[in-house]
């Protein structure tokens, strides 16, 4: 927005110095720590101040809406309104209904988010809702790969960002979100899914949280964000010369598709087929290497 629009927006923002000053509002969106006891206490206090018609929304990433509203007088007006980081950029908002949530409340909050220019989606209060249910394995596999020394952090992120078509890799994304928040959500989903191994928290991330390396907001996570720090680049294998000739194995569907890809890449593919069951690559100097290859075999010479 331009400067004039920004100043106009600022005039519509009124800071409250205490919770008692929110009396009279029609919608409250809570975004405190990802802890059930803290959220329950907040809503207990808020419910004593606001009018009965006020909608109470929580920005929780994964905590059960029914659990948050279990001690409320009117749990039907409690709903999840989950924004994504960074909220000014990310359009998606999950509208999360609990067991007691009124459908009218859900529809009202959905329309409100849409009017704000967001892309709202309805979802039930299940572990992780939609996005964090899907995202947990994205983070978890990135952390497992790092733990098993499959590759360094920069290489894992580069692979997912550049080849997987993600805007950010899993490790740099956790640095942006904050490891305290991300780890808390992982623990919440892991517990809610009855310790399913797919959602197992990472020791590496717990160490970062315990050590106060929470990501960008503390200046250090998987990467160093302090002033003047140089971001490490991915480890990339040097380019190798293309083979002078490629011979495919038996005529099978996978082989046909592979041949199409090789031709598209401009490699000279021999029309002859080999019956060999292994992949044999002969390189300059007469050296060779063999790799087990069920279904398709390739013979490459330079």
Automatic annotation (TrEMBL):
<protein>
    <submittedName>
        <fullName>3-hydroxyacyl-CoA dehydrogenase</fullName>
    </submittedName>
</protein>
<dbReference type="Pfam" id="PF00725">
    <property type="entry name" value="3HCDH"/>
</dbReference>
<dbReference type="Pfam" id="PF02737">
    <property type="entry name" value="3HCDH_N"/>
</dbReference>
<feature type="domain" description="3-hydroxyacyl-CoA dehydrogenase NAD binding">
    <location>
        <begin position="3"/>
        <end position="125"/>
    </location>
</feature>
<dbReference type="InterPro" id="IPR008927">
    <property type="entry name" value="6-PGluconate_DH-like_C_sf"/>
</dbReference>
<keyword id="KW-0560">Oxidoreductase</keyword>
<feature type="domain" description="3-hydroxyacyl-CoA dehydrogenase C-terminal">
    <location>
        <begin position="128"/>
        <end position="225"/>
    </location>
</feature>
<dbReference type="InterPro" id="IPR006176">
    <property type="entry name" value="3-OHacyl-CoA_DH_NAD-bd"/>
</dbReference>
<dbReference type="InterPro" id="IPR036291">
    <property type="entry name" value="NAD(P)-bd_dom_sf"/>
</dbReference>
<dbReference type="InterPro" id="IPR006108">
    <property type="entry name" value="3HC_DH_C"/>
</dbReference>
């Amino acid at each position: 927005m331009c400067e004039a629009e920004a100043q106009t927006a600022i005039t519509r923002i009124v800071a409250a110095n205490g919770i008692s000053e929110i009396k009279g509002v029609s919608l409250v969106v809570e975004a405190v720590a990802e802890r059930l006891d803290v959220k329950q206490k907040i809503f207990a206090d808020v419910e004593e101040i606001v009018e009965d018609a006020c909608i109470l929304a929580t920005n929780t990433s994964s905590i059960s809406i029914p659990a948050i509203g279990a001690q409320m007088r009117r749990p039907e007006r409690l709903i999840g309104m989950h924004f994504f980081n960074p909220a000014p950029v990310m359009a998606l908002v999950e509208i999360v209904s609990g067991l007691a949530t009124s459908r009218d409340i859900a529809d009202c909050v959905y329309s409100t988010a849409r009017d704000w220019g967001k892309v709202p989606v309805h979802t039930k209060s299940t572990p992780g809702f939609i996005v964090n249910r899907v995202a947990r394995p994205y983070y978890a596999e990135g952390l497992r790969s790092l733990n098993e020394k499959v590759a360094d952090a920069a290489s894992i992120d580069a692979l997912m960002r550049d080849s997987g078509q993600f805007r950010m890799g899993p490790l740099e994304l956790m640095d942006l979100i904050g490891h305290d928040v991300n780890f808390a959500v992982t623990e919440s989903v892991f517990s809610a899914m009855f310790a399913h191994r797919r959602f197992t928290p990472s020791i590496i991330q717990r160490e970062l949280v315990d050590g106060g390396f929470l990501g960008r907001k503390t200046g250090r996570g998987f990467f160093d964000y302090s002033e003047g720090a140089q971001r490490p680049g991915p480890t990339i294998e040097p380019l190798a010369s293309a083979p002078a000739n490629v011979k495919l194995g038996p005529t099978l569907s996978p082989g046909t598709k592979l041949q199409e890809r090789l031709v598209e890449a401009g490699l000279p593919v021999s029309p002859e087929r080999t019956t060999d069951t292994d992949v044999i690559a002969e390189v300059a100097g007469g050296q060779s290497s063999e790799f087990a290859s069920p279904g398709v075999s390739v013979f490459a010479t330079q």
